[in-house]
Amino acid sequence: MNKILISWIGRTDLRAVEESATIGLGPIAQAIGSISFDQAVLIFDYPKIEIDKYLRWLSGIKKIPTTLHQATLTSPTNFGEIYETAVKTIMECLDACNYNAELTFHLSPGTPAMAAVWILLAKTQFSAQLIESSKEHGVKIANVPFDISAEFIPSLLTRSDERLEQLTAGLPPNAPEFDNIIHRSPNMQRLIAKARLAAPRSVPVLIEGESGTGKELLARAIHKTSPRHSKRFVAVNCGAIPQELVESEFFGHKKGAFTGAVSDRRGYFETANGGTLFLDEIGELPLAAQVKILRVLQEKEVTRVGDTKPTSIDIRIVAATNRSLLTEIAEQRFRADLFYRLAVAVLHIPPLRERQGDISLLIDYFLENDDSEPNKKVHKKISSTARNLLLSHPWPGNVRELLNTLRRASVWTAGDTIQADDVREALFSVDSVPKEYVLNRSISEGFNIQEVISEVARHYLARAMEETGENKSKAAKKLGLSNYQTLTNWLVKYGLEQ
Ligand SMILES: Nc1ncnc2c1ncn2[C@@H]1O[C@H](COP(=O)(O)OP(=O)(O)OP(=O)(O)O)[C@@H](O)[C@H]1O
């Protein structure tokens, strides 16, 4: 675990370079001198030349790996800007060490507004220790004996967003079709505004985003807002179609076209005619199928396998991908001509960890609306520590993982309030197996290497199924297995499937 000190550089720190004999070392030097940190992350809003001088001086006091973050504040008391800078710095720092960090925020350097923001963050979004220091009393752990609900934070951020205002200028104020995409973060607001602009025009849309970010939900909202809303929305998971069936699934077939073609059958293109065809995981389509699909899109007609007569089709394509198609093109796994045909309106859904304020809103929404057990309409509440634990999780499986974690946590909660321990248990059940635990077992009596391997296999199989919403093709890919059939064999072998 990396012990990281995060601090603003304050006036007293900078003065210490020349005046340490009278004012002491300043709060940062005092802290790194008396507590052993692996790294210091320092934020500054002073001229770089002064900061460089300070760092040279600081390294003479104690050498410690240091990362600098420059802030541009319109005023040192602007809460919104201080908050955004602090969150961005913390997130970058957590990302860099893969969330394996024990954070300490220093309250003393900087303005009271900066200290207030550290307290808010340590009591809500991030689990961090707070310290303060002074020449007279040395370095102390700051004891702040209360919890704050993270609900209060986003109000600090209510700033106008020019880009959003431009985007929404011509749009009607309400968009009921988009109402079930729960969000309030500025980046999601901009995304939804762009989606609302693209929706009524029949242009192809490419939605990019990690697994579980809500790509299908967005695609459905776009369809419902489009002039095609009364026609069908057909969702196809391109990764789940066995290669040999791609043609007949997309284009349909005539009775007798191949063994097993016992009757005429329409393909996805014909089924979606007049409406929207949602091609999920488009990056998974084999190259041969890409050529054929491109041809259908160009010629606007489709011929069933075994038939000679083409049928005209009029569909809107909304495609989705969780990989970068440009990388796929560079590696010759995806055709550039198909990409340019699909990527007319490109919408990038940010991962949940980058959506400021959305997690809390989603928690409330899911607790209020989860209908996975319609007969048990007991809506649980959640304690503020449990909520904060959820807020500080990185959510690699995004909204889907948050939803499943809440479901698990509420199953194990006996009372009507989900507590921090329930959340820990729900998170832990799919969290990574601690490396030390697996590798450091005693190999004396009772040790069984097969058992240990099974344990690791079961853990990762369950986790991949969880993070992909039980989509076997995707889970196989995540685990480096060749296809869904191989994954099924593993699931059976390790007792996760009958
Ligand atoms: N902003 C949101 N508000 C409410 N529910 C959401 C939101 N985003 C996602 N969900 C829910 O999370 C789950 C996953 O969403 P969805 O299937 O749309 O994600 P996806 O990006 O298409 O996933 P995949 O890449 O695995 O196909 C669904 O149950 C969806 O309803």
TrEMBL record:
Tagged with keyword Ligase: no
Keywords, ordered alphabetically: ATP-binding, DNA-binding, Nucleotide-binding, Transcription, Transcription regulation
Domain of life: Bacteria
Domain Sigma-54 factor interaction intervals: 181-411
UniProt-listed PANTHER family: TRANSCRIPTIONAL REGULATORY PROTEIN
Name of this protein: Sigma 54-interacting transcriptional regulator
Organism: Pelotalea chapellei
